[in-house]
Description:
The structure holds 2 protein chains of 2 kinds.
Chain A: E1 2-13, E2 16-28, E3 33-37, H1 44-51, E4 59-64, E5 67-68, H2 74-84, E6 85-88, H3 100-110, H4 115-128, H5 144-156, E7 162-166, H6 174-189, E8 193-198, H7 201-204, E9 209-214, E10 217-219
Parallel strand pairs in A: 3-8, 3-9, 6-7, 7-8
Antiparallel strand pairs in A: 1-2, 1-4, 4-5, 9-10
Helix pairs in contact in A: 3-4, 3-5
Chain B: H1 2-15, H2 17-46, E1 57-63, E2 69-70, H3 77-84, E3 88-95, E4 101-105, E5 112-115, E6 118-121, H4 125-128, E7 133-136, E8 146-150, H5 151-158, E9 167-172, E10 175-185, E11 198-201, E12 228-233, H6 239-253, E13 261-266, H7 286-313, H8 315-327, H9 332-369, H10 375-379, H11 383-406, H12 411-415, H13 426-459, E14 469-473, H14 483-496, E15 500-506, E16 516-518, E17 521-522, E18 535-540, H15 544-548, E19 552-555, H16 560-564, E20 572-576, H17 577-583, H18 588-591, E21 595-598, E22 601-609, E23 624-628, E24 634-639, H19 644-658, E25 666-668, H20 669-675, H21 678-712, H22 714-722, H23 727-761, H24 772-799, H25 802-806
Parallel strand pairs in B: 6-11, 8-10, 18-23, 20-22
Antiparallel strand pairs in B: 1-2, 1-12, 1-13, 3-6, 3-12, 4-5, 4-9, 7-10, 8-11, 9-10, 14-24, 14-25, 15-24, 16-18, 17-21, 19-22, 20-23, 21-22
Helix pairs in contact in B: 1-2, 1-9, 2-7, 2-9, 2-11, 2-21, 7-11, 7-13, 7-21, 9-11, 13-21, 13-23, 13-24, 14-19, 21-24, 23-24
Amino acid sequence: MIQLQHISKWVTQGGSRIFLLKDINLEIQEGQFISIMGPSGSGKSTLLNVIGMLDQPDEGDYNFMGQEVFKLKEKQRSAIYKSHIGFVFQAYHLIDELTVYENIETPLLYQDVKQSERKALVADMLDKFNIVGKKDLFPSQLSGGQQQLVGIARALIASPKLILADEPTGNLNSKQGEEIMELFKQLNDEGVTIIQATHSEKNAAYGSRTIHMLDARIEL
Amino acid sequence: MFTNHIKLAFRNLRRNKVFSFINITGLAMGIAAFLLLLEYISLEQSVNKFHANLPSMYRLINESPDGKTWPEVEPGWAMQARQRYPEIKEYCRFEEGIAQGIVTKNDNSNTSYRESGIGYADGNFFNLFSFSLLNGNATDLEKPNTVYLSASTVKKYFGKENAIGKTLVLNNQFGKAVYTVSGVYEDMKENSDIRYDMVFSLETLKDPANLNSNDWAAPDNLNSQYINTFFLLNKNSDVAALEKKLNTLRDELKKDKDGVRFRLQAFSNVHLGTSLGDSYPTTGNLKYIYVLGGISLLILVIAWFNYVNLSTANSFKRAGEVGVRKVIGASRSNLVLQFMGESLLINLLGFLFAIVLILLLQPLFNKLVDKPLSLQTITSSTLWIYGLLLLMLGSIFSGGYTAFVLSGFKPLDILKGKVSKTSKGIFLRRSLVVSQFVISIALIIATLTIFGQLRFMQNKNLGLNTSELLVLRGPEVGKDSTYKNRKEAFINTLASKSFVQDYCVSGSVPGNFYSFVTGGFTQPASKKGDELKNYSFAIISDRFLKTYGIPLVAGRNFTAQECAVEWNDNSKVLMNEQAIRQLGFKNPEEALHVNVQWDERPLQIIGVVKDYHHLGVQHAIDPVIFYPQNTSSYYTVRLSPGNTPEKIASLEKAYKESFAGNPFEYFFEDEKYDKLYASEKQYGHIFTTASIWAIFIACLGLFGLASFTVESRVKEIGVRKVLGAGVGSIVTLLSKDLLRLVLIAFIIASPIAWYFMHKWLQDFAYHINVGWWSFLLAGSIAILIALATVGFRAMKAALANPVKSLRTE
Lengths: 220, 809
């Protein structure tokens, strides 16, 4: 599903290069649950952003489901991630002005899904995550764990093949964190590919494969 | 999707209350100002447009060799031209100045009023011009001694009675004549330059018996210029060729070669003219329209700038949302549409509030511009389309720019927290604030200058003493054989009153134009062409100069005997210094006892009057010739101070006793002069209102900006306070930036304001210079207001507990 070859990214500071990513080579098959571990600043988030097409490296090739991502135009690229990738953030990044229902619905709006279909999909999702009763609340009225549930529901609404989660439990207590990880596991069992960045050994253990990063490199 | 955007826009408005309030209030105020002035412009633009014959009608006007133009021509030309030139289908002449007098109901009721809005017109007046007749036949005006009344005049004289067939008596300079009411027309309104309360048949004046030996007014003469002449031309007539033919005709028939040329002015240009440079006489004021239009646009622009400023400053708040939306699949066009929707909603709300504001403020505004305006005024002209288009374009541009900025954030930057402060568009934002304050400061300077000039004019020494000077209008009715005795009796009564310090009769009074203006004067040393120069005539009695406190600089005053002689037997005149200069004398002494020629008549200069302002200070002092007569168009009385109402009542009693049937009308000289500055006062009030309006909107924006600056620097303020910064230093820190912008605005506004105000002042014969103090004051006002606005917000931030702002979640 994903092939990264010789991916490097750097910033120039005082004449010398500081690498954010250095010669990353990585292959991920569909259906895997990958955990990326490493200390702060080791490049986990940058790698996730590159995979999620939010960021571009200075060097290297990226093949996503048979397409050379960096050779595509901006529009085509955004079309790919719109339909195939869902993001989950540490800080949830829900839209404060929207209700739970509307937050989950928004990605469908941008994919021009019909209203009746949207209703059905969002209802399903609310049901699946057991948050039907909270659908008219605003994010500020929810606990962190509930907010992250909504964040995941939103990431899943367009049925993506790949979920990218950057420290999804970072702002949660351990019980909430466990629930979220159980949910990821369950999603993975249903066939969704998941890549998560995490500090926690325990969370990493939910994955089928763990990648360690240090100083912008993958440690083998 | 659309309903979603609207819903979201509403939520955003509610969430950011300060922001929404400032934006909507500012826009509402801007749009309201724009629409109010659009009403005014619509009315001015619609004047005369209702006449069906408008496109083929032309006004005959005169142009002197030095380029001056005026619409009063000799009455004889119309018929002469009509007989010769087939392109002239019809002509219509009318006059309003000469008919003024007292109108009395021809029964025992003694109902009588002095009427000034009345005139004589040709018989086809109601056919050629599209005034709707409510009653009567349009053609009856062709008969002598007929009169048509406006609906409200009918009410005034006859109440609910049917006026047709009733008779009215007109007493004026042509003596006393009885007229039969033959028609009633709908009141002529503000949208018409021709506005009569009564139209008398000009045909009446064809009978010499009705002229009271005023031969100059004979409707076929080619000597006295007093009448308006309109031609209705056949389709496709060559106007330029006709103009040429008319001039040839003038040269052929006119005896004295005065160098005056005929011009034909399209009726459609009579009100506003074709451009600012149009030299033809107009009844409206195009410059005024441009000034008002300009101000309204500037205010609107300030409001839009507010919107752009606040929205982009607010963008760091919205950046998170933009980032998330982009990550979950929003394209830029999705976001642009969303933000455009928001801006349209705000503009729409602003528009609705503007309508409410207009409904509330309409009476005040109408008083300010002295016109009966309403929103219907706009919709009844074609201007509303342009107005609406402009409003839409403005909101699309202001909203479009904001949407463009907001949708441009890179999602990764936002998610990484890079866009915590808005550096984006900071230059633009600063420029907009500067422009807003340039406009505001320039308006304040203009206001101060206008009031400075007004005060200057009101305080300028007029050269006469107006205090406690009461002027009574002389009688028109009842000039029979007993009149002379009654007049003497009245004067004796005046003289006997203890509170009358001085009194006189005269043909004209200061502040109220002259008796007439004429040329034809030469002195022995005059050159050829000097006879074309004009002199203003003031008919005065021997007591006039003393009563008004006007000194002589040489020679002597008239004696009572000299004032009592018949008009044509008089051989003595006084002149003011300006007249002496215009005649070519070096000093008053040189002019004394010289005989000047008035056409064939010699007149001896027996004295020179010190120059005084007979008209307002806007005008240079005219050359004036004082002619001795006991004409009693006016009685002037200087009262002793105090108890004025009682004294006036006592005068009224005496007046009624001597001149029964005449209305008792009076005015005070100082008030009369003050009224001469009405248009400058109006200008002043309009500018005051506009500048308050503008600076208020600009400060709303400034307050909003200050709020956002404070919000985005909350952490910094907290850190500084922890490190020991005092309130003063924090307020300075926060205010410095915005104040610097106001200062820059002041520097830009000053030369612009100076240029325009300097030009405006040149219209006045006596004027102040644009004073440095007005700049200083305007700058201080702007800076003080800005400081108060920003300081309030900054103070609040500086006093806040830093623990709150530094606490992390």
